[in-house]
Amino acid sequence: MNKPQRVVVTGANSGIGLALIEQSIERGDDIVAVDLKTDTLTLRYSHQANLHNIQLDLSKPEGIDTLFDFLNEHWGYCDIFFANAGFAYYENFANQALPDWKRNEKIFSLNTLGPVYSWQKLKQLNSGRPAKIVMTASAMAHIGLPGYALYSATKAALHSFVNTLQWESTQPTGIVMVYPIATRSDFFNSAGSKAPFPSQSTQTVARKIFKGLDKNKQRIYPSILFKIYWRLAQWFPFLTTIYQKIEAKKIL
To answer: How many Cα neighbours within 13 Å face the side chain of 1?
Structure first.
């Protein structure tokens, strides 16, 4: 049995975040769950004494600052921080009629800048105490998927940041990257599409994440199918081209 830890999960009210909450409860962790809405969490876990629900907008620095003020006041440190909050637009971005800076900024603020800023705040909170921040990237960090231009870009930027950061530090960064494929959840419905093939359940993804953490992995690929595909694609790039052409036909 793993020792209970102090765990933060963002984007906790649905999808992978909710599945991470369920796994954390089973492990006996003390949990802070953060989302814009916490109705599902409240409905399911109002009786859970070790679960604290907080409603915050993590696409703004003020929201993240408020979260870490709470952590500092109630805990003083955090063992695992799941930077999982994120969203997508499903669209033909090339055919967008009008430029919209605020709309573009919002998705990068939550998906990319939020995890980066949270990592900096976590280091400040823990003051040298070891901690892990688990950033939910996506298989789209490796493969730009038509219909998800902005989302793919936010995850590719996060991937590149972490990949570069490891060369700038003489000490472990504490960052763990997760690259899930599509999940069968409300994520894609909210984006305006159906989950592309292949897909996994959120429970499977959460279980694979904790398994990877227990093994001290720095990169976690919950889908074995994607791992095999990605290795083959390095040698046979046409595999990715075929997949992208198939997905592009859906939005053209």
So the answer is: 7
